């Protein structure tokens, strides 16, 4: 539900009623278009009508104002109206820090709608990256510019997993080096000759995997402020590879000079 939907009707109460008629089993009312407290009252009125018809209001949404105070008042009004199952949602330029603050202060909010700060990278609005070739036709290649040296060859990532199933750290190594004891390999072939090798997971499966993977990080690594860094290092084999690449480059340069 958008504010434009509500303003297209003669009254907020009429807008809520029309929306409930269209979505009787999945309605969330936006209550701050005119006056939030009055909007909550109108939502309660329509919610009671819905109940008489065998349906339930899913939630109300706060989109402006003092979300802490309004959420507490909204929860109180809904409970007093015998609508404890109606959730209180909040939105409006929120990010993870504001959400943490609201919850720590006791906001009675059941869910948050985050749009802008999910669709954009507000704290780091650019990604400085460039393609660097590390192998060509089986031959390792590298860049030797000062402070911009590259690690040659195809890579594999080995992840250490503790006995408790928690992730303990990653090692970036070469694809042909032995699997490190106590680790699992993260990279596998997913495309060949332009064709996918496995069936793409569903959105629900991806969501479940993401949640499960995050759960295997320590709490100190997931805290919003001053989190512990996840340990990542380069294997000894991969660290020695640039020296081999430099030696090959020097040999090529020497041969060129001899030819001259």
Task: Please identify the structural class as seen in this structure.
Answer: alpha/beta
Number of domains: 2
Low-confidence stretches: 249-260
- The CATH architecture of the largest domain would be Alpha-Beta Barrel
CATH topology of the largest domain: nicotinate phosphoribosyltransferase
Instruction: Give the helix proportion (percent range).
Output: 25-40%
Write the CATH homologous superfamily of the largest domain: nicotinate phosphoribosyltransferase
Beta strand %: 15-25%
Rg, nearest Å: 28 Å
Helix/strand order: HHEHEHEHEHEEEEEEEHHEH
GO molecular function: glycosyltransferase activity; nicotinate phosphoribosyltransferase activity
Domain Nicotinate phosphoribosyltransferase C-terminal: 184-239
Region (Disordered): 216-260
InterPro entries: Aldolase_TIM, NAPRTase_C, Nic_PRibTrfase-Fam, Nicotinate_pribotase-like_C
Quick tags:
single chain; 260 residues; alpha/beta; TIM Barrel; nicotinate phosphoribosyltransferase; 4-stranded parallel sheet; 4-stranded mixed sheet; 12 strands; NAPRTase_C; phosphoprotein
Describe the overall structure.
There is one protein chain. The protein is of the alpha/beta class and 260 residues long. The protein has 2 domains: 3-119, TIM Barrel, CATH 3.20.20.70; 135-259, Alpha-Beta Barrel (nicotinate phosphoribosyltransferase). It has helices at 3-7, 12-22, 36-52, 67-80, 96-104, 116-119, 203-214, 219-222, 236-259; strands spanning 28-30, 59-62, 87-91, 111-113, 135-136, 139-140, 155-161, 167-174, 183-185, 191-192, 195-196, 232-234. The strands form 4 sheets. It has a 4-stranded parallel beta sheet with strand order 1-2-3-4, covered by helices on one side. A 4-stranded mixed beta sheet has the order 9-7-8-12. β3 (87-91), α5 (96-104) and β4 (111-113) form a beta-alpha-beta unit. α2 (12-22) runs parallel beside α3. The longest helix is centred in the last third of the chain and has 24 residues, at 236-259. Residues 249-260 have low confidence and may be disordered.
């Amino acid at each position: 539900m958008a504010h434009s939907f509500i303003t297209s009707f003669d009254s907020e109460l009429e807008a809520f009623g029309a929306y409930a008629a269209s979505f009787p089993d999945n309605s969330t009312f936006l209550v701050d278009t005119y006056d939030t407290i009055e909007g909550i009252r109108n939502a309660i009125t329509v919610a009671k009508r819905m109940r008489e018809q065998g349906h339930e209001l899913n939630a109300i949404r706060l989109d402006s104002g003092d979300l802490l105070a309004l959420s507490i008042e909204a929860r109180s009004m809904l409970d007093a109206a015998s609508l404890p199952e109606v959730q209180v949602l909040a939105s409006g330029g929120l990010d993870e820090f504001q959400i943490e603050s609201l919850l720590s202060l006791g906001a009675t909010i059941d869910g948050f709608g985050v749009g802008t700060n999910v669709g954009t990278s507000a704290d780091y609005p650019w990604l400085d990256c460039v393609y660097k070739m590390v192998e060509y036709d089986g031959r390792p290649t590298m860049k030797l510019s000062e402070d911009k040296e590259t690690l040659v060859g195809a890579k594999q990532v080995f992840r250490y997993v503790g006995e408790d199933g928690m992730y303990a750290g990653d090692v970036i190594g070469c694809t042909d080096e032995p699997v490190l004891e106590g680790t699992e390999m993260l990279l596998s072939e997913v495309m060949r000759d332009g064709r996918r090798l496995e069936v793409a997971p569903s959105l629900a499966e991806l969501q479940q995997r993401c949640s499960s993977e995050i759960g295997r990080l320590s709490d100190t690594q997931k805290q919003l402020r001053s989190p512990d860094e996840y340990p990542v290092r380069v294997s000894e084999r991969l660290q020695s590879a640039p020296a081999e690449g430099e030696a090959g480059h020097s040999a090529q340069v020497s041969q060129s000079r001899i030819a001259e």
